[in-house]
Amino acid sequence: MAKKKNHDTQQPHPPVTEQTTSPAEETTPEEVTDAAENTGAQTELEALQAEMAAQKDQFLRMAAEYDNYRKRTEKEKMSTYDNAIAAAVEAFLPVVDNFALALDAGQNMPDEFRKGLELIAKKFDGAFEKLHVKAFGERGEKFDPEFHNAISRADDPEIEEDHIVSVFQKGYQIGDRIIRHAMVQIAN
Question: What is the pLDDT of residues 49-72, one digit of tens each?
C-alpha cells in the first residue's frame, strides 16, 4: 500500500507578495486602538476643560455677587447708623438753639451763669463732633440752596453778593445727609 498523503492536514503557504508600505508606515492593531483612545481622551479633556471654564465663570460671578452684597449691606448699615444719629440729633437741636439764644441774649447775666451755659454748649458741640455731626451756616459763607434756606435779603457793604449776612438757625449734617438746613439772610 502506498502511502497516501493527506492534503487536508497540510496547510498551504500563502503566496509571497511584494510589500507596498514600509515597516514604519504599517499600523498595528495596538496603534489603531491607541489612536482611538487618544481621540477619546482628547475629547474627554476638551469636555473637562469646558466644564472647568464654566465652573470658573460661575465662581467668579458668585464672588462678584457676594462682593456687591457685602458692599450694599455695609452701605445700608452705615445709612441706618447715620439715620439713627440724625433722628437723635434732630431731637436735641431745639435745646442747642435755646442755649445759643440764651448766650446771645445773656450780655447782662452774671459771669458764673454765662460760663455754665457756655460749658453746656461746648458739651453739646463735643458730643456732635464725636458723632461726626457738623454745623454749617456761618456769616460770610457763600449761599448754597442745597444747604441753606434764604429767609430774606439785606444790604451789607462788608459781605459779597449771595453770601450769608446773618444766621437765624444753624444747619447740621452727618456725612452727606442734611439733618437741618440753615436759615439765613443773604446779601444783595
Answer: 999 999 999 999 999 999 999 999
